[in-house]
Amino acid sequence: MPASRSNDPRVTAGVVALAAISLLIGGALAGLAFEGASDPSGALSAFDGYLFRVVRFTLWQAALSTLLSVAPALLVARALSRHPRFPGRRLILQLFAVPLALPAIVAALGILTLYGRAGYFAGGLASLGGGTWDGIYGLSGILVAHVFFNMPLATRLFLEALGTVPADQWRLASQLGMGPGSAFRLVEWPALRAALPGVAGLVFMLCVTSFTIVLTLGGGPRATTLEVAIYQALRFDFDPARAVALTLLQIALTAVAVLALTRLGADTVGDANLPVAPRRYLSVGAGETVVNVLLIGLALLFVAGPMAATVAAGLDADLARLAGEDAVRRAMLTSAVLGVLSALLSVALSLALIMARRALASQRRGAPASLLEYATDTGAGFVLVVPPIVIGAGWFLALRHVGDVLAIAPFMVVAVNAVMAMPFAIRALRPAYDAAADRHDRLCLLLGLSGWNRLWLIDWPSLRRPLATASAFAMALSLGDLGVIALFGSDSVQTMPYLLLARMGSYRTQDAAGLALMLGLACLALMLVADRLGQGGRR
Questions:
Q1: CB atoms inside a 10 Å sphere around CB 265
Q2: Alpha carbons 268 and 253: distance in angstroms, whole number
Q3: Of 366, 361, 380, 421, which is closest to residue 100 (Cα–Cα)?
Q4: Tell me: the pLDDT tens digits for 247-264?
């Protein structure tokens, strides 16, 4: 007989993981509730014209960013789908995956290097604007950055949707003599239309919860979103009542977005190695080919431009001097240590939930799922409702009553980054673990293998690659995160993004470019090395 629920170490590990997640999020919400209850009139008075202007701008920029990201992605995805043997197609798809691992502050600096007041395109943009160019700060900069991040993601998700079109439909369209317009309307558009709400909802949520982009490219109070306003209320104005009001609205907006995503069935991460689309039976005319090549080329230039600008500007900096600075070396070491700890904690929590869910499902024998099983299945998704800046704000308000808030910066960065990476880690780990469990559950039961013995002897060979992928992605997220460290960071606790932001704020642009190059290359190298290690482990 299977082990009882109370004696199964997998269930115990899942309960511990759920308790840790609940403590982190619940503690933040308790801090917000306590602060609001201690000054209810102040929290209510914070709902003023400024707050509602911030809400309007948050929604407006998210809506515009979604439109400008999704509409071109539809066209680019169709162009790539129509040309499965396009030269460099695989390289383009891999390039479109880079923004997922690129820290937002690095991308922001690359965009400023291209489109800023002293950027490479400043002269051309000035001539178009009547002789002057004031830079890209404000709504325009936010939109460009959001499109840079979200258009490639949307393209890959739409391409996955087009890949689901059965080859029989293409064969039938060819036999009926359909042209490009009819094929799009009758074959391609139904697949795209089914994916469109989910992709648009995902992009909207990412833009609503955008912090680093708005902080670095917003340019002032006229372009402030809820998350940036929370940060300003705590670190500069120290207005706890306003911070509570802002966080409550941010939670409400994010909850609505997440609920919409769950109803729409949106995917959060596209496959980094998309397969070649099914063979087409329709010929592509010369005119359509020219248009498609132009679309792919423009998208490629738009995505590659900020990356190339970051590299070019970084190489112009004095990298040797930067690498020798004590502040830079301390920031690099701090980022590396916090990133490793965040990755380990994220993978451990994710694997605990996955194993507990599998154990509970095998024990119920067709009975309805228990509340605990449901919690282990969806617990990691709850973190999407509470953005990192909200968790940080809650703990910031709670801990200021008991001690030095800045002293716990390392613990908060590790905990929040680990939990925020869990949805991605679970997505990488769950299919591999479920497949291994399907093959080995009966054998482990017969041999009496459980706990660490089963994990090491049976499950580990199947989990090495997904564990490497999940760890790499979690570490890359932690290395590039600015949300939590922006609240809790100080001169004594600095990460690379925090130091980069400080150099940008003090107008040391060459130093900032060099730091951005170091940080970006570290994140990308991490992903590549981990993927190689994972592939080697499977052989």
A1: 11
A2: 18
A3: 421
A4: 888 888 888 887 777 776
Would residue 528 count as lying in a domain? Answer: no
Tell me the CATH number at 47.
1.10.3720.10
Question: If pLDDT is split at 50, 70 and 90, which confidence band does 271 have?
Answer: very low
Please tell me the total count of domains within the chain: 1
Q: Is residue 227 part of a domain?
A: yes
Q: Which of 307-321, 342-356, 484-498 has the lowest mean pLDDT?
A: 484-498
Alpha carbon 223 to its chain's center: 22
- Token pair of 412, please? 């908060």
Can you give the residue range of the structural domain that contains 199? 39-315
CA–CA–CA angle 462, 465, 470 (5° rounding): 120
The tokens describing 244, both together, are 């509570």
Q: Name the amino acid, one letter, at 331.
A: A
Structural domain includes residue 503 = no
Q: What is the pLDDT of residue 269?
A: 45
Residue 418: per-residue pLDDT: 92
State how far the Cα of 100 lies from the Cα of 335, in Å rounded to an integer: 18
Cα Rg, the chain, nearest whole Å: 24
pLDDT digits (tens, 9 = 90+) for 104-126: 999 999 999 998 887 788 778 77
User: Tell me, what's the pLDDT at 134?
Assistant: 73
For tokens 């317009």, the residue is: 181
Distance CA 410, CA 493 (A): 8
- Residue that the structure tokens 């990691």 belong to: 380
φ/ψ of 284, rounded to 5, equals -105, 120
Least confident of 35-39, 328-332, 444-448: 444-448
Q: How many CB atoms lie within 10 A of CB 240?
A: 23
Residue 46 has a CB neighbour count (10 Å cut-off) of 22
Instruction: Supply 306's token pair.
Output: 């900020």
321 within a domain of the structure (yes/no): no
More confident residue, 176 or 481: 481
CB 414 within 8 A of CB 335: no
* Torsion region of 341: left, alpha or beta (phi above 0 gives left; psi -120 to 50 gives alpha): alpha
